[in-house]
Design a protein that fits this description.
Distance between the termini: 39 Å
Structural class: alpha/beta
CATH architecture of one domain: 2-Layer Sandwich
Mean pLDDT: 79
Number of strands: 10
Helix content: 25-40%
Radius of gyration: 21 Å
Number of helices: 15
CATH superfamily of one domain: Ribonuclease H-like superfamily/Ribonuclease H
Shape: globular
Strand content: 5-15%
Order of helices and strands: EHEHEEHHEHEHHEHHHHHEHHEEH
CATH class of one domain: Alpha Beta
Amino acid sequence: MDFTKVTSDNISGLLTPILDLIRQAHYIAVDTEFSGHGPSAAKHMDQRYQDLSKVIQTHTLLSFGLTVVTKQQNSSGWQFFNIEFLTRNQHSFRLDPSNIKFLAENGLDFTQIFRRGIPFSSGSTGKEQDTDELRKLWHGILKIIKERQIPLVVHNGLLDIMYLYESFFASLPETLSTLVADLVEMFPAGIYDTKHLATDVVGEQKSFLAYLYCKYQRQSLDSSSWCVGPSLSPITPSSTESIDKTTRSLDDAAETSSMKRRKRMKKYDSNKKTKSGICGLYALRGWCKRGKECELSHDLQLILDRDLGTSAHKEEQPLTIPQRPLPQTATADESSTERHDHSAHFDAYMTAFVFCHFLSTISLEDLALHINKLNLMRIDVPLRLVPSHYAKPSTEWTRIRSHLWPPSSSL
């Protein structure tokens, strides 16, 4: 899959072309890779936020992917432009061994990150830093999406959003309610979470990103769908999620999602070899603690064959899409076809693909009911990003906002 890799070598020449591309977007999707994801999620949301904030402020963003989604001319299809940014925090940070092992096993090149990552300073800087090019980029993105009313798309995206906030805007606010107030202003066209849409709207029993992507790609191919994109076959991508959340359908009140999850976990015990040789835990949630060392299969096409009772991937024909490259204003290695099973640019692309599928299968009226609802693992209700009379935006965001949108045009 073609994508543009942005590093410290070429970012200066790519800032303007990237922002020009975003001005043409109908949606933008993001995904991040980071050095730590925190302890088991607390059920009380305020406590969970405190726990996550501590992890994010002591760990770091390693890379992020950005997919720009535009409508194809004279077509009902979509066009995707995929960009990956390698990032290098200038502050000290911690590394979670399990996170780093997982990322290394799935192709994240730490040598590239530490040699060519784009330098940034996380947290509050006290003033705008002209030398921090990633802050310039994200401030520019916020200006454009406010002007053009472009929604943001994530998958299980609370951690992604918190890492982006801490890395390129300011230190995370002390309370969740303050962060929500900031996000409502930062993303005025709203945020869609494809994991929330998959579980709470569509009712998917398995909602980890790679599974949804492969499943919907099959459906797109089988139905000669409008949604065209680069073919990635054979494909066995890993999910970005270390723990998956399975929710009940909207009309099922008999069992809680946690009760159902425990039953499925027992049923798909990965220590028991299935007749198909498929890893049960990976098939259920897209993650297995054994990783590459697991002797059972993590092949999503085999898993889909079993789940759907088909083998459609054997007849798949590659899809192609005209990729308009960014202008040649940077170093020669800015465009790449390199691909790993787990990477920020690929996960951002899969998120965008899944969302475009939902655009064709969920009515706009129903979608409007689920904007600004972020999936919460192990909690049956989403986090709602709505204005509140009881929470004001943070001081730091208010300062940034006045810089981005002078008083005459501020919210």
